[in-house]
Amino acid sequence: MLVAAAVCPCPPLLVPDLASGAAPELDAARTACADALAVLAASRPDRLVVVGPGAEEGLERYPAGTVGDFRGFGVDVQVRLGTGTAAGDRPLPAPLAVGAWLLERVRWADAPVEGLAVSERLAPVRCAEAGRELAAQAGRVALLVLGDGSACRSLKAPGYLDDRAAAFDERAARALGSADTGALAALDERLAHELKVAGRAPWQVLAGAAEGAGLEGRLLHEDAPYGVGYFVAAWS
């Protein structure tokens, strides 16, 4: 059963070594992420699953101990998902590596950790099924859900300016802040793709996991630096 969730953005720039001179611009987001992770720790979970975009197709699982790095962004920073030594040689995709960095930053040691990468084109119904499967894995399951909002909020945004982006992000932020699983499940897959929303599928996995859990949500942070929507929320 899902007992808590933290929703965080996953730009590599959250890692200060990558942000360089721009590091202070995301200080508020980093602080909010730490606060959301504190809610997870307080829920005393049996298992923590880090869910984020990154699978080429469908779903890809990453066991505890899987290593990731940010060398592709020009910085030799390595992270590990929880403790242990994972079998296989698949590195964490960048969003899950950001999640591993967030956990290392707060020195997470409250429950075993595993990762689940979700294709950004995974159908909503399949996202919901995956979420329900996660929630059934243990008596007390917590999720760290990674994903960004639209990337079309300004002329300099990665997807340029799209007049539909602000309204989409407003709906997503409201749903995340109120733990509204129905509103998350109803986010339009096609529109999300057009607006380059990396969080749509992970958020809908969360919606499936939270069905019937009776969780309440709080929106801890909302911003759109660089023209990309970033949201931090805590469900408990």
Can you walk through the features of this model?
This protein is of the alpha/beta class and 236 residues long. The chain has one domain (2-235): LigB-like (Protocatechuate 4,5-dioxygenase, Chain B, 3-Layer(aba) Sandwich). It is built from 8 helices and 9 strands. It has helices spanning 16-19, 27-42, 94-105, 124-135, 165-178, 181-185, 189-194, 200-209; strands at 2-8, 47-53, 59-62, 67-69, 78-80, 113-118, 141-146, 217-223, 230-235. A 7-stranded mixed sheet has the order 3-6-2-7-1-9-8, with helices on both faces. It has a two-stranded antiparallel sheet with strand order 4-5. α4 crosses α8 (200-209).
Task: Write a short abstract of this structure.
This protein has helices spanning 16-19, 27-42, 94-105, 124-135, 165-178, 181-185, 189-194, 200-209, and strands at 2-8, 47-53, 59-62, 67-69, 78-80, 113-118, 141-146, 217-223, 230-235. It is an alpha/beta fold and 236 residues long. It has one domain (2-235): LigB-like (Protocatechuate 4,5-dioxygenase, Chain B, 3-Layer(aba) Sandwich), CATH 3.40.830.
Question: Helices and strands in order, then pairings?
Answer:
Elements: E1 2-8, H1 16-19, H2 27-42, E2 47-53, E3 59-62, E4 67-69, E5 78-80, H3 94-105, E6 113-118, H4 124-135, E7 141-146, H5 165-178, H6 181-185, H7 189-194, H8 200-209, E8 217-223, E9 230-235
Parallel strand pairs: 1-7, 2-6, 2-7
Antiparallel strand pairs: 1-9, 3-6, 4-5, 8-9
Helix pairs in contact: 4-8
